[in-house]
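Researcher: Good morning. I'm working through a list of sequences from a screen, and I'd like to move beyond sequence-only analysis. For each chain I'm collecting a predicted structure so we can compare shapes side by side. This is the next one on the list. No need for commentary yet; just the structure.
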Amino acid sequence: MSGTEAQANIGVVGLAVMGSNLARNLASREGNTVAIFNRSHEKTEALVEEHPEAGFLPATSYEEFAATLSKPRTAIIMVKAGAGTDAVIDELVRVFEPGDIIVDGGNALFTDTIRREKAVRETGINFVGAGISGGEEGALNGPSIMPGGSDESWVTLGPILKSIAAVAEGEPCVTHVGHDGAGHFVKMIHNGIEYADMQLIAEAYDLIRKGTGKTPAEIADIFAEWNRGELESYLIEITAEVLRQTDAATGRPLVDVILDQAGAKGTGAWTVQTALDLGVPVSGIAEAVFARSLSSKPAQRAAAADLPGPDETLDIHDADAFVEDVRQALYASKIIAYSQGFDAIVAGAEQYGWDIKKGDIAAIWRGGCIIRAQFLNRITEAYAADPGLVALVTAPYFADAVARTQQAWRRVVVAATEAGIPAPAFASSLAYYDGLRADRLPAALVQGQRDFFGAHTYKRIDREGTFHTLWSGDRSEVEAVDTH
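Model: Good morning. Structure tokens for this chain:
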């Protein structure tokens, strides 16, 4: 085309698998005409040729791409996070005008999104960081979408994103999360919860296999059964499929020929790092990240193989009862993972001035995304009943669920410990739960230690003020420190 006729209401820059699938999704929805651009024009041509039904409007330059879009121009960037994203933003800012909208749909670090939004806003152009979850399938058929950005941008962008989002119980899985980096922040927390969820499932599988001797195919049947109950979720569903798979080359269960070293793309680590900065304990998520790190240290693991310890033999007298214990432990630990994740969302919203509605986030995670699960409805209900809920695990539904499952949870953690089977996410989630409900924690001693070696002061339970003990002299002598 000539590049002078504006016909598309939405454009996509970056046509790797995620970008191509998102462009196809957009083009398949009534009312959308999609302009596409890729730095390597061969990818643009290939997508047009492979999907003539999409009616794509291909561009060979940023100038032509901009001219193809109707105003306010709206473009979604789907390139690798980092310097590549900044380069595309610079090019679009060059050819766009005030009021236009640039959307970063990649897995950007939310602080980068805050920086980019501030810089782009000075040009009068809207910048939106949008978390998109669901992988390649979600991008094509309907993802869960978490956009940030200005209220102005949402007016134009909202209907477009609603047209392509997954639908759960008649509602599109997209909401305006908040301003500047809020969307990418929530997507980061989503991925952190995903890490915990996957690690917990892996620990459940490992315990069942070592405790009962069942084959992967038999354990697949267990997970399929679990997926018909309160654990119903996408991750439980695909776990059953993975465990059923046989390796064509060896005839062995595929899970037995996959190298036991798990990769990570960074969002889990970002969640933990951010939570540390915010002072929020996300121990279940952290242990899931550390478990992947440990799995990827083959030299250390080989060197430690002969260290003393139990032989991973579980003394199980009733296999069915043990499997049920593991199921309940998994459910309880999953509740903790989500509770910790939402604690981080609350803290982030407070720190960065975002008005994030927790119930809405749970609602848009019900479809399209990797952690979609039945009990997300219960989270939405919990925040609807009490928007100021101090911890998700204290909501009546979840408190009752943990009360019902905690004895099984404790039995599983004890059994794993006695057998020398690592279950870090199960154990850390239980320790967090016990710490949360404890009447008094040993932090009092820590404060005493800090005051001894660093005069950091402490508060008392019986009077107001801040205090310091003169430890080098009479140990009964206490000096009150003026906090003003």
